[in-house]
Design brief:
The protein is mainly alpha-helical and about 70 residues long. It has helices at about 5-25, 30-40, 55-60, 65-70. It starts with a helix and ends with a helix.
Amino acid sequence: MKSPEDLLADLHSEVAKDLLRRVQSGEASSQELSVAVKFLKDNNIEAQPVDGSPLAALIDSIPVFDEDTLHH
């Protein structure tokens, strides 16, 4: 019989696998994407925007507003 710690580790692993599968397949809803982000944050997983990475592309796609644009 598995220890409670082993059972929790298995559950953690299966949740991670399922979230990854849904995100990679494009099936993940916006709510599931939020859960995936929280899962990463809760597990202290961070990413840095490296040139050519999807994260860097996402950051580059966010519009930059100057102060004049915000006040008009």
